[in-house]
Amino acid sequence: MPNRGRNVQLFALSGPPPQDIVIGGGRYRLLRVFKHDFFAATTQYQAIGPAKPSRIVVKFYRTQPFCGLPMAWAGRLSRDHEMGIYAALAGLSGVPRLIGPVGQTGLAVEHIEAVPLDHLPAPPAGYFDRMRAVLDAVHRRGVAHVDANKRSNMLVGPGGEAYLVDFQIAIRRRDELPWPLRVVLARLVEYFQRKDLYHLYKQKRRLAPEELSDAEEALSRQRSGWHWLHRKLTKPYRAIRRRFLRRQYRTGRLVSPTARWEDQPQPEKDTWRQR
After folding, report:
1. CATH number for position 184
2. Does 53 lie in the same domain as 39?
3. What percent of the chain clears pLDDT 90, i.e. is strictly above it?
4. Contacts of 96 (CB under 8 A, 6+ apart)
5. Above pLDDT 70, what percent of the chain?
6. How far, in Å, CA of 44 to CA of 226, rounded?
7. What DSSP line would sit under 103-131, residue for residue?
8. Which end of the chain is more exposed for a tag (fewer CB within 10 A), N or C?
9. Does residue 26 contact residue 51 with C-beta atoms inside 8 Å?
């Protein structure tokens, strides 16, 4: 379908991702697109033949220009950054295994049989305690997730297992850097690790308040001055952005180039897709 009259610049890819890819000695075919926004398209591929794993998740970072400016370089930097985070977390339970790069700006990880937390009315009992264990393991590797405020980044397995995904804006310690860079970065990581726990317990307070301890209740309301400033600066931006996206959607200009592949609920997009 032609993109004429459509605002495809607001999406990472100008069209569908590759129909077939080859990685790790296996051939895979596009099955669906989980999410497609300005920065990346997150997709699922099915193995053709006996390849293992049988399904993989591939994130394609931005390749198309924006307002005439090339953006593939930013896509490559983002892909390399997230691959570095996955490499630092290799072997951890609750974190998908990195498989490798795909094309110019893509990376593949193993597919987890799970659903995002925002697809469920309520999590299974004990879920947030299991997610705390995953976050603790991530933090011990010197990584802060930074984006734990999004329920879509927390997956729930068939037995209530907890999985953490999407390390796009995560940060990690870099002890090989010269002083004072490594010290500044280490403090930033520590700060955002505390924010990870704040967001975890905020979600627990909202979704499983009966399981919340007094200490967790206190953590769920522990905001710093930086947090207050961030909210003050970003809240107006989010409101303006949402109004813009809603207007674009209502006029028929904001149609994802991969819409026919997007067969999964996307609660984050529903904030502006409602007519």
Report:
1. 1.10.510.10
2. yes
3. 75
4. 57, 86, 109, 110, 111, 112, 163, 165
5. 94
6. 37
7. TTTEEEEEPPS-EEGGGSSSPPTTHHHHH
8. C
9. yes
